[in-house]
C-alpha cells in the first residue's frame, strides 16, 4: 500500500480545532477504499491478539466471540498530560488508602447520602458491622483506576482533569494491554513503520497481577487460592482471563465464583479463614459488587458481609470501596481535605489538587441551594451524579434542570452531587463495533491510569502506577463506557 499513500502529517488540527489521528490527513480519513482495507486488517489483528469480547446475543458463552470494540487509529494524547496522569497515580493510591482508614471522615462524608440512597446505605452498614467486629486481616490490596479527560479551558490550554477514581472492579487492563498490537499492525500495514514503533506498550496486566500475586504470597498459605468474584453474565470475560492467566503462570490457582455461590457454599472457620468449595481464599478480588443489580437479594448482601468479615485479603475492602463513591470524591475536593491527609507530602497533595475540577455538595442548606441555583441557570456547565458506577447513570444538559427541579425541595437531593462539566478536546477516529458499519466520528477520549498498592497494618509496602486505559467515544454520547457499548478501546499516541 505504501506508494499510494498521502504524506504523513503529525499531528494535525483541522480548521475547527479538531485533532486528527496522528498519522492521517483529513483526506486520508475520507479515503473509503483505504479505510476499508485498514478496517479488515485491524479486525483480524484484534482477534489474533486477543482483544475479545463475548457477543451481545450470547453474552454467557465463549462459543460466539468477537472483537471488543476498538478504534481504528491510536488517538493523539499530549505527552505532558499522559506523564502527569501516570505520575499522580501513586499519590492517589496513598490518598485513597489513608481515607479508607479514617472511619470518622467516611461516616461524616456519607451521612446524608446513606439517609436517602439505599445502595450506599447497604454498603455502609457492612462497613459499620466490620468495624464493630474488628478487622480480621491487616493486609489490604488496592487496584484502582483514576480516569481523566483533557479539558479545553477557556484559554484553549488543554489540561488533565479527573473524572473519577474507581476503587472496585476497575477493568479493561487485560484488553488495553493488547490494543497497541492492533494499532501497530494498522500503522505497519499502511507503511507507517516509524509511527508504529512509537505506539506505547502498556504493561497493565503485569502490574496488576504482580499486586495480586504479592498479596497472595503475603497471605502465607501456599495452598490457598485467588477468588475472582464475577457476575452471572460476563461479556468481558477475556479481560479477566488475561489477569487470571498471568496468575496461573505464577503458579497461583484462580477460582471464579458468583456472590450467590459464596452465600451457598462459603464459610469461615474459627480463625475467620474463608473457605469456598474446599478452597481456602487468600485474596478475594471483586469484579462485581459495585451496583445494585449485583445484590439481587439479601443473600448477596450476606455473602459480601461474609467476605468482608473474613481473613481473606480483599480487593477492595469495603472501606476502600466506599472511598470510590462520588460523594467522597466531592468531599475530598473541599479546601484543605487532601492536604490534611498528605501533610508530610505537600507535593503529592498539589499534584492531586491540580487534577480536580469543581465538585459540589447539594445537601440541604445554603451551600447546596446556591449551587443548585447556578446549575438551574446554566445546566450545560454541570454534571449531576448519583452514587452509581458502570456508566450511563449521570445526568447532563436539560435533564439536569428537570431533575434538580424535582428533587431540590427534599432530602432526596443528597443522593447526588454536582460536578463542573469538562469540555474535552475533540479527536477524529473510526470506532469499530462488531456488526455495525463504521463511520468517521468526532470523539472524546478518556484516559485511565491503573494504581496498585498493598498496605500491611498502617504501612504501604507496595505503591505502583500500573499501566493505562484509553477509551474513546463519539461526542453523540455524554456518558457510557465500553461495557455499555458506547466507548471503544484505544491507545494513546503521544504528541
Ligand atoms: P461511572 O462510575 O459510571 O463510570 P463517571 O463519573 O466516570 O461514572 O462518569 C461516566 C461518564 O460520564 C464519563 O466516562 C464521562 O464520559 C462522563 N462524565 C463524567 N463526569 C464528567 C464531567 N465532569 N465532565 C464531562 N463528562 C463527564
Ligand atoms: Mg466509576
Ligand atoms: Mg467512569
UniProtKB/TrEMBL annotation:
Keyword terms of this UniProt record: ATP-binding, Glutathione biosynthesis, Ligase, Magnesium, Metal-binding, Nucleotide-binding
Catalytic reaction(s) noted: gamma-L-glutamyl-L-cysteine + glycine + ATP = glutathione + ADP + phosphate + H(+); gamma-L-glutamyl-(2S)-2-aminobutanoate + glycine + ATP = ophthalmate + ADP + phosphate + H(+)
Pathway: Sulfur metabolism; glutathione biosynthesis; glutathione from L-cysteine and L-glutamate: step 2/2
A GO term, aspect molecular function: ATP binding
E.C. designation(s): 6.3.2.3
Binding positions (Mg(2+)): 164, 166, 389
Cofactor note: Binds 1 Mg(2+) ion per subunit.
UniProt xrefs under SUPFAM superfamilies: Glutathione synthetase ATP-binding domain-like (SSF56059), PreATP-grasp domain (SSF52440)
InterPro entries given in the database record: Glutathione_synthase, Glutathione_synthase_a-hlx, Glutathione_synthase_C_euk, Glutathione_synthase_N_euk, GSH-S_sub-bd_sf, GSH_synth_subst-bd, PreATP-grasp_dom_sf
Residue numbers binding ATP: 164, 326, 385-394, 419-422, 446, 473, 479
GO cellular component terms, A-Z: cytosol
Cofactor: Mg(2+)
Binding site for substrate: 145, 240, 471
Domain Glutathione synthase substrate-binding: 224-323
Source domain of life: Eukaryota
Database matches in PANTHER family: GLUTATHIONE SYNTHETASE
Family stated for the protein in its record: Belongs to the eukaryotic GSH synthase family.
Subunit and interaction comment: Homodimer.
Function: Catalyzes the production of glutathione from gamma-glutamylcysteine and glycine in an ATP-dependent manner. Glutathione (gamma-glutamylcysteinylglycine, GSH) is the most abundant intracellular thiol in living aerobic cells and is required for numerous processes including the protection of cells against oxidative damage, amino acid transport, the detoxification of foreign compounds, the maintenance of protein sulfhydryl groups in a reduced state and acts as a cofactor for a number of enzymes. Participates in ophthalmate biosynthesis in hepatocytes.
Protein name as annotated: Glutathione synthetase
Organism: Chiloscyllium punctatum (Brownbanded bambooshark)
Upper lineage: Eukaryota, Metazoa, Chordata, Craniata, Vertebrata
Amino acid at each position: 500500500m505504501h506508494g499510494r499513500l498521502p504524506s504523513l502529517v503529525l499531528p494535525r488540527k483541522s480548521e475547527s480545532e479538531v485533532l486528527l489521528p496522528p498519522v492521517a490527513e483529513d483526506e486520508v480519513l475520507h479515503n473509503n477504499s483505504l479505510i476499508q482495507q485498514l478496517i479488515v486488517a485491524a479486525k483480524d489483528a484484534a482477534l489474533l491478539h486477543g482483544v475479545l469480547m463475548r457477543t451481545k446475543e450470547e453474552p454467557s458463552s465463549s462459543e460466539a466471540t468477537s472483537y471488543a470494540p476498538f478504534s481504528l487509529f491510536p488517538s493523539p494524547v499530549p505527552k505532558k498530560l499522559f506523564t502527569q496522569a501516570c505520575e499522580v497515580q501513586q499519590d492517589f493510591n496513598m490518598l485513597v488508602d489513608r481515607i479508607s482508614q479514617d472511619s470518622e471522615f467516611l461516616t461524616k462524608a456519607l451521612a446524608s447520602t446513606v439517609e436517602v440512597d439505599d445502595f450506599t446505605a447497604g454498603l455502609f452498614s457492612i462497613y459499620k458491622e466490620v468495624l464493630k467486629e474488628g478487622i480480621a486481616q491487616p493486609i489490604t490490596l488496592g487496584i484502582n483506576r483514576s480516569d481523566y479527560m483533557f479539558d479545553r479551558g477557556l484559554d484553549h490550554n488543554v489540561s488533565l482533569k479527573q473524572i473519577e477514581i474507581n476503587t472496585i472492579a476497575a477493568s479493561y487492563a487485560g484488553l488495553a494491554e493488547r490494543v497497541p498490537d492492533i494499532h501497530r499492525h494498522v500503522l505497519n500495514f499502511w507503511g507507517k513503520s516509524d509511527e508504529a514503533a512509537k505506539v506505547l506498550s502498556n504493561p497493565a496486566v503485569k502490574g496488576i497481577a504482580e499486586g495480586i500475586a504479592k498479596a497472595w504470597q503475603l497471605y502465607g498459605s501456599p495452598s490457598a487460592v485467588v477468588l475472582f468474584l464475577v457476575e452471572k453474565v460476563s461479556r468481558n470475560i477475556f479481560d479477566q482471563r488475561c489477569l487470571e492467566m498471568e496468575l496461573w503462570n505464577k503458579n497461583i490457582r484462580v477460582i471464579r465464583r458468583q456472590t450467590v455461590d459464596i452465600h451457598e457454599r462459603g464459610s469461615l472457620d474459627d480463625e475467620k479463614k474463608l473457605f469456598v468449595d474446599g478452597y481456602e481464599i487468600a485474596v478475594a478480588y471483586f469484579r462485581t459488587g459495585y451496583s445494585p443489580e449485583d445484590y439481587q437479594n439479601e443473600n448477596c448482601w450476606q455473602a459480601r458481609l461474609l467476605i468482608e468479615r473474613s481473613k481473606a485479603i480483599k480487593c477492595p475492602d469495603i472501606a476502600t470501596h466506599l472511598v470510590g463513591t462520588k460523594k467522597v470524591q466531592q468531599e475530598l475536593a473541599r479546601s484543605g481535605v487532601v492536604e490534611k491527609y498528605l501533610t508530610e507530602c505537600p507535593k503529592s497533595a498539589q499534584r492531586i489538587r491540580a487534577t480536580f475540577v469543581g465538585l459540589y455538595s447539594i445537601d440541604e442548606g445554603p451551600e447546596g441551594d446556591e449551587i443548585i441555583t447556578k446549575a438551574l441557570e446554566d445546566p450545560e456547565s454541570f454534571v449531576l451524579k448519583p452514587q452509581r458506577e458502570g456508566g450511563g447513570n449521570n445526568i447532563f444538559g436539560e435533564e439536569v434542570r428537570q431533575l434538580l427541579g424535582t428533587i431540590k425541595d427534599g432530602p432526596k437531593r443528597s443522593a447526588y452531587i454536582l460536578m463542573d462539566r469538562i469540555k474535552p478536546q475533540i479527536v477524529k477516529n473510526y470506532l469499530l463495533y462488531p456488526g455495525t458499519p463504521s463511520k468517521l466520528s468526532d470523539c472524546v477520549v478518556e484516559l485511565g491510569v491503573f494504581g496498585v498498592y498493598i498496605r500491611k497494618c498502617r504501612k504501604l509496602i507496595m505503591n505502583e502506577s500500573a499501566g493505562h486505559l484509553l477509551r474513546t467515544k463519539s461526542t453523540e454520547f455524554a456518558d457510557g463506557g465500553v461495557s455499555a457499548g458506547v466507548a471503544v478501546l484505544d491507545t494513546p499516541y503521544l504528541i
